[in-house]
Specification:
The structure holds 2 protein chains of 2 kinds. Chain A is mostly beta strands. Chain A contains no helices and 11 strands. In chain A, 0% of the residues lie in helices and 55% in strands. In chain A, strands 2, 4, 5, 9, 10 and 11 form a 6-stranded mixed beta sheet that branches. Chain A is globular. By secondary structure, chain B is mainly β. Chain B is built from no helices and 11 strands. Chain B is globular, with a radius of gyration of 13 Å. Chain B starts with a strand and ends with a strand. The chains are: A mainly beta, B mainly beta. The interface between A and B is medium-sized, with 20 and 22 residues.
């Protein structure tokens, strides 16, 4: 089955700096890669996703890049703000419904 | 819409007791998912339903776990008998289609003593 590795497990940045979280996956058939943000006491919420026919996608301060050859994808957050502090999960899926999640990255943005 | 609703939000029970977790998906969503989240294993898909029918239950850990969806607006996840290693946060999620965004509920934090 699919295996997703996520790094780093914790990340601390100063407000205004950029944050980058990286994931690798094992199943070359995977074609859907969402990123979820989970705030304390809440369920994960989708913030951006990318499909295998696209190399990069951007939504305001958030961008995701995908390298299918190397089987890795990354989340980039620019101009970080304290409200960006949360746990971020990457996931991969070859069937669109069965998401395999990474172990998560705790992002702390210091004011 | 109120989003995915789960109850209870917290459940503390003793080993050997039956536990029932409940979920109301977003109206109109045909797909419903049950996940378990632990520090050790992260987020794991337990089972998913399409139009109230269980499609893939390969993630259900053992026979002590069962899930039902008697209608389009209600699903249950039951653990009988419960064990301390079942302690986790259980999430329900729903989506319009498998390739669409999954909307997660707030989760049920289960503690088995």
């Amino acid at each position: 089955g699919e295996n997703v590795e996520q790094h780093p497990s914790t990340l601390s940045v100063q407000e205004g700096d950029s944050a980058v979280i990286k994931c690798t996956y094992s199943d070359s058939a995977s074609n859907y890669f969402p990123w979820y943000k989970q705030e304390l006491g809440k369920g994960p919420q989708l913030i951006i996703d990318i499909r295998s026919n696209v190399g990069e996608k951007k939504d305001q301060r958030i961008a995701v890049t995908l390298n299918k050859t190397a089987k890795h994808f990354s989340l980039h957050i620019t101009e970080t703000q304290p409200e960006d502090s949360a746990v971020y999960f990457c996931a991969a899926s070859e069937s669109n419904y069965k998401l395999t999640f990474g172990k998560g990255t705790l992002l702390t943005v210091n004011p | 819409d109120a989003g995915v609703i789960q109850s209870p939000r917290h459940e503390v029970t003793e080993m050997g007791q039956e536990v029932t977790l409940r979920c109301k998906p977003i109206s109109g969503h045909d797909y419903l998912f049950w996940y378990r989240q632990t520090m050790m294993r992260g987020l794991e898909l337990l089972i998913y339903f399409n139009n109230n029918v269980p499609i893939d239950d390969s993630g259900m850990p053992e026979d002590r776990f069962s899930a039902k969806m008697p209608n389009a607006s209600f699903s249950t996840l039951k653990i009988q008998p419960s064990e301390p290693r079942d302690s986790a946060v259980y999430f329900c999620a729903s989506s319009l289609a498998p390739s669409n965004e999954q909307f997660f509920g707030p989760g049920t934090r289960l503690t088995v003593l």
